[in-house]
Specification:
With 110 residues, the chain is mainly alpha-helical. It is 45% helix and 0% strand. α2 crosses α4. It is elongated. 4% of the residues are buried.
């Protein structure tokens, strides 16, 4: 879709458009044992959750090649994120913080 739109704009303005991919970081699987800890903590606290992939470029894409990595997402209103219109309810933030706290406390006991 992006390439077709770029080509249409180039034709409209009588210019050429050349697109080259300079780099691509491969997707990074999250560390399953850590994800399971997040899942268990959410269940224990009675907090609804879902496991989902993220296609965004996050620090975890780089860190996961050297460190066990997992991500804990908090829902944004209407699914809008990485935008000035992004909004996350304080209750959702508090629930995520509770899950994170429970997992961090568990990890400090290991």
């Amino acid at each position: 879709m992006f390439l077709a739109e770029a080509e249409a704009i180039a034709q409209e303005y009588g210019v050429t458009c050349r697109i080259r991919q300079l780099d691509q970081i491969p997707p990074a699987p999250m560390f399953r044992p850590l994800m399971q800890k997040f899942e268990k903590a959410a269940k224990d606290l009675g907090i609804p959750y879902q496991i989902q992939p993220s296609w965004a470029g996050h620090d975890s894409m780089i860190l996961s090649h050297r460190l066990p990595t997992a991500m804990l997402f908090v829902p944004s209103k209407n699914g809008i994120s990485h935008s000035p219109e992004e909004y996350t309810d304080a209750n959702d933030i508090g629930q995520a913080a509770s899950v994170l706290k429970k997992v961090l406390e568990e990890l400090t006991r290991e």
